[in-house]
Amino acid sequence: MRGGHVCIVVSFLLLLAAVSGEFAGDYSKLSGIIIPGFASTQLRAWSILDCPYSPLDFNPLDLVWLDTTKLLSAVNCWLKCMMLDPYNQTDHRECKSRPDSGLSAITELDPGYITGPLSSVWKEWVKWCIEFGIEANAIIAVPYDWRLSPSKLEERDLYFHKLKLTFETALKLRGGPSIVFAHSLGNNVFRYFLEWLKLEIAPKEYMRWLDDHIHAYFAVGAPLLGAIETVKATLSGATFGLPVSEGTARLMFNTFGSSMWMLPFSKYCTTDNVYRRHFSGGNRENHHAYHCDEHELQSNYSGWPTNIINIEVPSIRAGDEAYPSFVEIAQANLSGMECGFPTQLSFSAREVSDGTFFKAIKDYDPDSERLLHLLQKSYHDDPILNPLTPWERPPLKNIFCIYGIDSKTEVGYYFAPSGKPYPDNWIITDVIYEIEGSLYSRSGNLVEGNPGATSGDETVPYHSLSWCKNWLGPKVNITRTPQSEHDGSDVQVHRNIEHQHGEDIIPNMTRLPTVKYITYYEDSESFPGKRTAVWELDKANHRNIVRSPVLMRELWLEMWHDIHPDKKSNFVTKAKRGPLRDEDCYWDYGKARCAWPEHCEYRYLFGDVHLGQSCRLKNSTYDLLSHYV
After folding, report:
1. Backbone dihedral angles phi then psi of residue 7, each to the nearest 5 degrees
2. Phi, psi dihedrals of residue 32, rounded to the nearest 5°
3. Is 382 part of the annotated catalytic residue set?
4. pLDDT score recorded for residue 336
């Protein structure tokens, strides 16, 4: 999954520093720590590689991820710089790549007149921060090599040591704690960091360190129980829009240590919570075995909507060929007891994450042995944490879990042999989607299963995104409002709704079919001194959610309210939403005036090319924000 869209909260948060003189809160002491997602950090060459039959070579510091020009003209050279050894995650003997550093590593992946806007991640948001006078040292990006497993990130790059120093440096430099904003895989990275930190800090000092260095954690689009698309990328390949074949994408993806990090897994299965020194050279005789409760045996599909994988394998292997073609398989089956019909096997999320699936197809796929080795060594036997287990609420003061819902999202696949050689030896014959609380096949037929109350964000299923609702306590306040500016007439509030741990919270609220809503689940009483909130944004896409002006507005208001000395509630009011910037004002052609006349007015400035551009705020941003205390 390409995530990495991770600066919006920082933009809003630190914008307030520009007006800090107008209110008693001190945003100037806060820093923003940005943890990007999968494939959202630039990688640069650290080798000299001569590419035959191409005028383009790779030299030190040349862009590798993402340079589409070299990808198109010298794909074999490019793959050498991208791929890793699947067993030990070392670089190719002819080329190595390393992550870039600083904000430039996450702004545009492929800078250029044409490619720049297409690969832009946070360039516009950084420009926005600069326009409002945000200091350069207040926004801190922490890029990482997203190809590596969590243990290799520390072993090769000392990433978690550096991340700890980043928090400590920000505290010393700015004088206050940091806001952590992570997107997609960045949330998995942050989770591992919190567990790794337990080994680095004395137990009595652990909570004090967290309180001193982390003010709030914003988890956006977090695949808390994994992502189904990981399975597709592993078996048939996912190009993510790159000009490469699916087979080439699969070949590359399966060499990454991170390829197993987002596998879907069961919420009912955990491992032993054993902490040992990871880099002391000690042995690993204590295997982290999975322990599943009775719900895993009683539930269908490990609690997911349906089986993750349905795959056809030959019932009789053809001769001595390890990976026979589909024709050979058919001929072998025709002479067997099953009259030529292959066997269809189904696998739940637990059977995917514990390796059962890869063992079952070991004789029919050359990648299975390598993936099993990676899964066992880098995840099941990780001495810090097995990431393929449910995540309980982190021990942080303020947590906001934010994700999109109500979009068509893949939740299951049907695979069959393609008759082609590896890496194109599997094809997808059908896809199961969750759509607004129902399951459908690719052909549009209704499918039986256990669909959730709604669907996911086009990339991560709702079942995985909504796991953070378990971080809420037994009493939850729920508010639903339109995403656009509103006067409060369509705001619905339910207070003290009972919530059972492990169960979803489904609000009994109405919605108009033409309106996009945002639903807030808030709890500030269950854990003394801690606040937990879950925000669900209708139709917000996984990869673009942080570009949403709606999310930008809500984060800004929440952080403004959070530090204001005169705040009257634990969370910012949802009673109304009006324009906060000139860009929020627009021309109402039906009434021949600027919309929101109480806040906006027509004020032409030289260079305006249409009426909407001339609609501007009447009052300062500070005056408008005072209504949300």
Report:
1. -135, -5
2. -115, 120
3. no
4. 39
**8 A C-beta contact, residue 5 and residue 547:** yes
Active site residue 184: yes
Please enumerate in sequence order all residues whose Cβ is within 8 A of that of 124, keeping only pairs 6 or more positions apart, or say none. none
Q: According to the model, what pLDDT value does residue 52 have?
A: 84
Q: Which amino acid is at 98?
A: R
C-alpha closest to that of 306 among 269, 357, 266, 348? 348
CA distances for 495 relative to 529, 538, 555, angstroms = 20, 21, 22
Active-site position among 287, 291, 494, 501: 501
Q: What angle do CA 173, 177, 178 make, to 5 degrees?
A: 95
Q: What local confidence, expressed as pLDDT, does residue 335 receive? A: 40
Q: How far are the Cα atoms of 577, 592, 595, 615 from residue 584, in angstroms, in the given order?
A: 11, 17, 10, 9
What's the whole-model pTM score? 0.89
pLDDT-flagged residues of the chain (< 70): 1-28, 109-134, 273-289, 316-340, 621
| Per-residue model confidence (pLDDT) at position 283 | 46
- Helix ranges restricted to H, 521-583: 549-563
Contacts 24+ apart (CB under 8 A), 72-81: 72/243, 75/244, 75/248, 76/51, 77/49, 77/51, 79/248, 79/251, 79/252, 80/49, 81/43, 81/45, 81/47, 81/49
How far apart CA 155 and CA 220 sit, in angstroms, is 27
Residue in 184, 368, 407, 548 annotated catalytic: 184
Residue type, 479: T
Q: Which among 457, 523, 562, 584 is annotated as catalytic?
A: 457
For residue 213, the surrounding DSSP H or E stretch is helix 203-213
- Report whether 370 contacts 88 (CB < 8 A): no
Q: Residue 202 is encoded by which pair of tokens? A: 């004395």
* 501 is a catalytic site residue: yes
DSSP state of 120: B
Distance CA 585, CA 616 (A): 6
CA nearest to 154, candidates 35, 7, 36, 277:
277
CB-CB neighbours of 269 under 10 Å: 22
- CB count in 10 Å sphere of residue 14: 25
122 Cβ neighbours under 8 A, 6+ residues apart: 5, 6, 7, 34, 103, 106, 107
Write the CB contacts of 378 (distance below 8 Å, at least 6 apart in sequence). 89, 149, 150, 151, 152, 257, 260
Q: What is the CA radius of gyration of the chain?
A: 25
499 Cβ contact list (under 8 Å, min separation 6): 469, 472, 473, 474, 475, 476, 505
Let me know: does 182 contact 28? Beta carbons within 8 Å.
no
Q: DSSP character for 30?
A: -
- pLDDT of 29-74, one tens digit each? 778 888 988 988 899 999 998 888 777 888 899 999 888 888 888 8
- Give the span between the Cα atoms of 608 and 605, in whole angstroms: 6
pLDDT, tens digit (0-9, with 9 covering 90-100), for 202-243 = 989 999 999 999 999 999 999 999 999 999 999 999 988 888
